[in-house]
Design brief:
Length: about 450
């Protein structure tokens, strides 16, 4: 890896000086590609099951997607809190703060991962039953989720380690580690399915091993680093003051992500009530549309990091420029990817399943979700900007009412009058429009208050 020369970590972006257009792109695109590669490897799992095992196995794994997303959302939010705190210390040139925050973040990731594994193993079956997973799919869905949950410590560790690297502008190292582990995962999954006759258990096992590899690689590079983000085994302890700050920023951010996921669990339950074909179609479409989200989310999180460093350095005008540039770039890239996903929707769906009914249903979801997800750009960028200033609560509250409130209300009112897949999918753009309008108003008020508070 060329980012390391004689054991010395050298990759770093100066976010405090110079142009922003190129630097935001340099950081955002590898970050987006990391999410895309991660999803490609997950999509390969679904495709392998759909082509080599059957649509029932594919639907069983798809029924877990909302649960997994909800579980990870809270801790990814907390890792974002770590990113904000570390980036702020970098902006302040506080090396001790960076050092203590890095060691706190790694330790918190491992502890939270262990706790989630234990809790998850206890509630897996009751949770899937509550979500109305069909009886013929339940055993496979339970098997997949239980094996997946065993990997929670290393899954969370990878996300927290990635946030540490991202706090100083390095999004390439996590990407490289992910690609290495993902390729291993594909090989393992093929071996488990074709050679050992495994089904969803093989895919879940490959996922756990891949996450172990990626998190171990990142930990190795943190150990070898000579910069302020280096980790030292003897220095691991939780700094209570830093942890409190991480949680103040990270928990609302995580809850915002959970709101999306919880509302999607409600939608997934409605999807499950429509039968195995709809479940399989929705799982396939989700694994395509999510690529647009990774582009949108990448610019939002990079906006957070750049804002955090510049706010730490008290450069408020530069923070405003970060938000504007991130918004423009995100709108351009997300519009392009959304258009491509819809244009090539039918052949992409055929990669997952060749059943004509499944493909037709999947395209309905693509039209309403991937086709209109560009609206979500406004929510992600403004939320990212406000988190960079250290305020995660306002975006979380707005998202709760705008996204979760709209979607749950829709499922239990409009959908109940006409239980049709297309009617259900319309709720996605409706909830984005409501939330985007509200968060624009909130941002204007927040910035007015921030300007009056600044010396």
């Amino acid at each position: 890896m060329n980012a390391y020369i004689k054991g010395r970590y050298t990759r770093k972006i100066d976010m405090l000086h110079g142009s922003l257009w190129d630097k935001i792109l340099i950081v955002a695109l590898p970050f987006a590609l990391t999410g895309i590669m991660q999803q490609l490897f997950m999509a390969a799992d679904i495709a392998m099951l759909g082509q080599l095992v059957g649509k029932e196995a594919m639907a069983a794994v798809g029924s877990n997607s909302s649960i997994i997303a909800t579980t990870l959302s809270l801790f990814i939010g907390i890792s974002l809190g770590a990113n904000v705190v570390i980036a702020g210390f970098i902006g302040q040139r506080n090396e001790k703060g960076v050092h203590d925050a890095v060691h706190t973040a790694v330790l918190v990731a491992l502890i939270c991962g262990l706790v989630m594994t234990v809790i998850g193993e206890l509630i897996t079956r009751p949770l899937l039953v509550a979500l109305a997973v069909p009886a013929e799919l339940l055993d496979m869905a339970v098997m997949y989720l239980r094996i997946y949950l065993l990997g929670m410590p290393v899954i969370l560790l990878y996300n927290f380690e990635s946030s540490i690297f991202r706090s100083q502008g390095d999004t390439r190292t996590p990407l490289i580690c992910l690609v290495i582990s993902g390729l291993v995962k594909v090989v393992l999954n093929l071996a488990f399915i074709l050679q050992l006759g495994m089904t969803v258990d093989g895919v879940a096992t490959g996922t756990v091993i891949a996450n172990l590899i990626s998190s171990s690689l990142l930990f190795y590079f943190l150990r070898r680093s000579k910069s302020t983000i280096a980790v030292h085994m003897q220095d691991f302890r939780i700094d209570k003051k830093i942890l409190k700050r991480m949680l103040q920023i990270g928990v609302p951010a995580g809850l915002q992500g959970m709101v999306f996921s919880l509302s999607n669990i409600c939608i997934q339950s409605a999807i499950n009530s429509l039968g195995a074909d709809v479940m399989a179609a929705s799982a396939a479409a989700f694994n395509i549309e999510i690529f647009a989200y990774f582009i949108i989310n990448a610019f939002g999180q990079v906006c957070t990091t750049f804002t955090s460093q510049n706010y730490g350095a008290r450069q408020l005008e530069r923070c405003r420029q970060v938000m504007k540039i991130s918004m423009i770039q995100d709108l351009l890239f997300s519009a392009a990817i959304c258009g491509l996903l819809v244009w090539f929707g039918i052949p992409l769906l055929h990669l997952f399943n060749t059943d004509g009914a499944v493909v037709a249903l999947g395209f309905i979801r693509l039209k309403y979700v991937a086709g209109l997800e560009v609206i979500n750009t406004v929510i992600e960028i403004i939320s990212g900007s406000m988190r960079g200033y250290g305020n995660s609560l306002i975006p979380a509250v707005i998202t709760f009412f705008g996204i979760c409130g709209t979607r749950i209300t829709w499922v239990y009112t409009i959908f109940q009058t006409q239980m049709d897949f297309e009617i259900l999918m319309i709720v996605f753009p409706v909830s984005w429009i409501v939330t985007a309008a509200a968060i624009c108003v909130a941002y204007k008020i927040f910035m007015k208050q921030l300007n009056s508070d600044m010396p």
